[in-house]
Amino acid sequence: MLQKLSAQKHWQPYKGPFTITRIQPGDILEENEDFTFGPLSIIDHAVMKKGLTIKMHEHVNDEILSYVWHGTMHHKDSAGLEASITSGHLMMMNAGRSFWHEEKVKNDQVEMLQIFVRPHETNLEPIIQFHEKPIRNRGWYLMVGPEESQAPLKVRQNVYILDAHPKQGEQLDVPVYQGLQPFLYVLDGELTVGDLQIKKMEAITDLEEPLPAITPVADSTVVLFFVDMNAPVSMEGTISGKRAY
Which of 231, 240, 23 is nearest to 118 (CA)? Predict the structure, then answer.
């Protein structure tokens, strides 16, 4: 049965120059003791104003995908690495036992997702990864997958993350990953999925059947997760390991 996560269920822990709409994927489930969807913990849909600096801060045991939709976010970390994260330039921080970083917006406003996944173990080696992908790909593009997968970015968990940018009226079939459950999030635009309308900052899943094809009502950007709902997880993450908000 299709289940929808309405935008009305989200909340905003930060407002102002740095505004976060916090999506708790587990809120899509009718009965769930946690706010997570398996190891998929939090999706922060962030808007960052020009001139904003988020000072150097630490993450521990968080697997974090930074997915910029609009603008440029400038990254700096405690190892001295600096990088510009833009649409099509992905960053995966596998924080492990400790990772420090700073974020800055110098010019245009940034709209982006920071996606938090609980790793399968605590205190793994910290790693940072980057990948250049096509911009506004109409079909599905595999961005993130487990260490043994062919995905360009690795997450220490049994989770896959894809994106697509279908145009208005272009029906797009949703793939199937055997044994994993889908969670489809609309970053921008609006879709019809079966009999449901899914708008910006809303999501859909089906725990029993594959998701039907999606049809954009307007040009859209969607991020699709496939999740092992029974995977072992570390509960020690700075953000991902929280038990309640």
Answer: 240
Q: What angle do CA 236, 117, 43 make, to 5 degrees?
A: 115
Residues 6+ apart with CB under 8 A from 31: none
pLDDT digits (tens, 9 = 90+) for 119-158: 999 999 999 999 999 998 999 999 999 999 999 999 999 9
For residue range 88-130, list pLDDT tens digits in order. 999 999 999 999 999 999 988 999 999 999 999 999 999 999 9
Name the CATH superfamily, with its identifier, for domain 9-227. Answer: Jelly Rolls (2.60.120.10)
60, 94 Cβ separation under 8 angstroms: no
- Tokens encoding 55: 């000072």
H-run or E-run covering 121: none
Cα separation, 12 vs 245, in Å, equals 11
> Domain residues of the chain, as ranges?
9-227
Q: Which amino acid would we find at residue 163?
A: D
pTM above 0.90, yes or no: yes
Token pair for 5: 């996560």
33 phi and psi angles, rounded to 5 deg: -80, -15
- Tokens for 175, please give them: 């793939």
CA distance linking residue 130 with residue 106, whole number of Å: 20
Q: By the 8 A CB rule, do 85 and 66 touch?
A: yes
CA gap 84, 97 in Å, rounded = 24
